[in-house]
Amino acid sequence: MRPLERLLRAVKFDPGRDELWCLGDLINRGPESLATLRLWRDVGGRGVIGNHEVYALLARGGSWPRKSDTLDALFAAPDGEALLARLRALPVLVYLSGGAGYSDAWCVHAGLHPGWLDLHAAAAAINAGPHDDAWLRSEAVSFATRVRCCTAAGERSRYDEGPEGCPPPYRPWDALYTGSTRVVHGHWARRGFYRGSRTIGLDSGCVYGGPLTAWCQEEDRIVQVSG
Ligand SMILES: [Mn+2]
To answer: End-to-end distance of the chain based on CA atoms, in angstroms?
Structure first.
């Protein structure tokens, strides 16, 4: 069985009761982008957009050069355009309210700009964009879907190894995060799963043979299945 199916089973996911929020990069690199998107759709999945969704949308529309990817089946599928439209509609920053006995959290694919001090205002402004190709290529969307190491002014480094090696003056974006609300993110596969003081990174490199990781908000619990 595929890792996403096994993960949903491991957390006893119930589409009638639970919400599945994916942190982006559901597609590309892996061998089954189309099947993954269909499963995500069929269980009522929600999420935030990742850089590989941005790539797929821009490459499909011809406004970005097509590189080596694993998107042929998605692009050729009868429901491919509808699935791509779902991806284009995804927000960039999502706030998940807390409840009795559990805390609120922000979801973003890669990370937060140090200058986004009012995250509710930033989320409203970015998510309300036109979701056209120019929006997909905007600095705000690029930052949130690609940052690993940056400066306090929000200049990004291209460095993509582990956080301890960020070349000065760049620092891991989460070291510059001053908010108190927990942030859950993906993207940094070389960093792997980690639990920081106010951030959780869930990209454990499933596509490279690592596990697939979920965080259950109500229980503040990590669940992993092998890749
Ligand atoms: Mn990514």
So the answer is: 10
**Interval between CA 185 and ligand 1 midpoint (Å):** 10
Q: Please tell me the distance between residue 193's alpha carbon and the centre of ligand 1 in angstroms.
A: 14
The residue assigned the tokens 């991806």 is 87
Kindly give the pairing relationship between strand 182-185 and strand 105-108.
parallel
Q: How far is the CA of 204 from the centre of ligand 1 (A)?
A: 12
Residue found under tokens 């969307």: 141
CA distances 127 to 56, 102, 132, 135, Å, are 19, 25, 12, 10
CATH of domain 3-225: 3.60.21.10
Contact between 173 and 182 (Cβ < 8 Å) = no
pTM of the model: 0.97
Summarised one tens digit per residue, pLDDT across range 90-145 is 999 999 999 999 999 999 999 999 999 999 999 999 999 999 999 999 999 999 99
Separation of 53 CA from ligand 1 center, angstroms? 9
Listed residue (208, 212, 199) closest to 10, CA to CA: 212
Q: How far is the CA of 87 from the centre of ligand 1 (A)?
A: 14
